[in-house]
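Quick sanity check, Neutral/alkaline non-lysosomal ceramidase N-terminal domain-containing protein:
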Amino acid sequence: MKYGLTIAAVFMVLIVIRFNYNLRDRHPDFNIDLVIDPLAEPGRLSVGFAKIPITPQVTDTWNDFNNNAKYEPEQGETYNDVNGNNKFDPVWIAGFHNRRPAQGVHDDLWARVMVLDDGATRVAITSIDAVGFIYDDAVDIRKSAHDKNNCDYTIISSTHVHQAPDLIGIWGESFFKSGVNTEYMRYVKRQTVAAIETAVKNLVPVKLRIGQDLEGAIPYVVDSRDPQEMDPGIRIIQAIEISSGKTLGSLVSWSNHPETLWSKNLLISSDFPHYFRESVENGVHKGDRLLAQGLGGITVFVNGAVGGLMTTNPSHPIPDPFDGEMHKGATFEKAQAQGQQLGLLALKAIRSADVMEIEQVGIKIRAKTISIPLDNRNFLLGFLLGVIDHGTTGWLDVKTEVAALRIGPISIITIPGEIYPEIINGGVVSPPGQDYNLDPVEIPPLRSMMPGKFKFVFGLANDEIGYIIPKSEWDEIPPYLYNHHKSPYGEVNSIGPEAGPIIHESLIEMLEGF
């Protein structure tokens, strides 16, 4: 009996040690409180671009006998041991549901970078084709970018594509087993660091042209949760080399989940951003028909305020830009039409009379580490078990980060997850059925506090903490909002109800007088 109790006690101690290890702060030395102001005399702006693939190698395939896009060996489904190592080597696709192994690659995934340098301050804006990238992993890359490339500030944003390998952990073989392939994670980090290094090497003096279309893309996105608030604006920056007049690249931003291919797609793809970037780079064409000439260079796509959630579901049609055919369902043809329509809007915006040009301008930065309580029990369980490889600080707080940047008429705020558009643009409500009986907390709207004409919001930047929901719209317990019969989608994939107020307050403090 005593022997058994001793074994049990040792076992419990080992569990506690393991849990504490999994919850440790991965980067206790990394805390930011950054204040950079431009020089009194603005320098000439230099910009560099790069893109390097982060496409996984899909070797083993499998047999989806019941066509539900879930690998279920308990139902008799089998795998094809293509590499002959007598085990299944899946590439787990992130998004929608777990147990979704890839069957191949449709188009490449990328790490794409735009570096800006005013002669005194250097900023790297990096976008990777991933569902999300956790803060601890982003810091690994950012430390290298600072040490090797003299980047004063680096942003690692995710496009949030739902057809790329799991880099979070929750879309693997089971809820208790991470879907992250550690070898692939190391590959993504190496390639992203290399892309930043290449972009720095490519720095040359430029002029920037900036344009926007704030309403044209409304038909291509759906708000799936009340209140109906979206962030449909397309914003674009074009960088033109001074000496040659050649376009080096561009940055485009729009707010929507890249999940047009939906939940049964089994091919690795960057979804509509692939076609959006391709259209801006190479033009919108089909055979001999050309609807718009491309800009050339490398296009970086950065997602925005996608919470709420912004989507293009299978029932929502997208018109073909060439013949007007309405594409429904979840097909590559629909994703292509969507990307081309977005490309047409971006190209028209950058060629409009409202475009602004800048050559000599300083870079202003504010960035700060913040902590948010981890109130999601499922996330906590994932942290404890190591399914989600994310540390904590203090008493189960999650360390993350927000930032504000200004480059002449351009202002940027970074959001460490999927923020609801009403926190950005206004429209936060306090409907009956909310859990906290509060008036709106996240006011004024963040964009109303941002300076300049072109106000960019970079979502999933340096982290992915899930949905960032207005606290007065938080709803887990009955009665439910708008007399619905169940809790709305969102809270289940949010770090907790304090995320919205904390992020909003932190950014408002940065933006006052910015």
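Posting the structure with no commentary besides this: The mean pLDDT is 96.
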